[in-house]
Amino acid sequence: MQIYWSKLTDVVTESPEVKTFFFECPEDYTWEEGSHIHLAFEGFNTGEKPDRSLIRHMSISTIRDENTIGITTRIRKEPSKFKQILNAMEIGSEAAIFKTHTNVPLKRENKNIYMLSSGVGLATFRPLALEYLNNNNNITKVHSLNIDSSKDYLFTDIFESSAEKNLTAHFVSSRDEYYQEAEKLTADKDALFYVVGSDEFLRQNIELLLKQGIPNYQIMLDKHESQREKLFAN
Asked: What does the record give as EC number (predicted)?
């Protein structure tokens, strides 16, 4: 397993509770849109077993062309040990990056793509939107629907409606409005539905999509196959 030790180069506050941490991109390191990594801190692998409190599965919110590894996450008032360490990192300090994988690459099947997300889950879709804007071949249109009760909506410079680019974005702040809008999207029976959020959010969306006649192979989740099977089984 290749482990990269990468320096923190910048931290950007996206909203009162959300920050993006930017790490150096190693020369030989690459990834696809929608990828996640394992991010870990010094000491995570010094014992007989990895220290799980120092490791977290995180989505990359940047694309390779940006030449930086962006990690966008919510930092609450009483964060976990991992988030405390991450938030206290100084520019130039290092973190380990390994096990890069994507479950939600941008599919180019001449279909409409709907991106359904909750809160900071939108960070997973930022690279997909950028890749689409850079190259829209074999994608009819992209629509993003995001629910965030804080109303501090993320990445509005990218997720903004543009008729010219066939990209539309809709931000809502209540669950009722979100599910009303999501149900409207299911009228498009041939589309691909990408869903990112908590397991509860995923289950609720899966239930809605299946009930409205969207087959499971048109529902994309940022989950390994075994995790995906469990979510669809519930």
From this structure: 1.18.1.2
CB atoms within 10 A of CB 92: 9
- pLDDT tens by residue, 160-184: 998 888 999 999 999 999 999 999 9
pTM above 0.85, yes or no: yes
- Parallel/antiparallel/unpaired status of strands 167-172 and 139-147: parallel
Q: How far is CA 25 from CA 31, 50, 142, in A?
A: 11, 24, 28
At the topology level, CATH places domain 4-102 in: Elongation Factor Tu (Ef-tu); domain 3 (2.40.30)
- Show me where the domains of the chain are located: 4-102, 111-233
Q: Three-class SS of residue 221?
A: strand
DSSP string, 136-192: -TTEEEEEEEEE-TT---S-TTTSS-BTTTTEEEEEESSHHHHHHHHHHHTT-TT-E
Q: Return the axis-axis angle of helices 175-185 and 199-211, rounded to nearest 10°.
A: 40
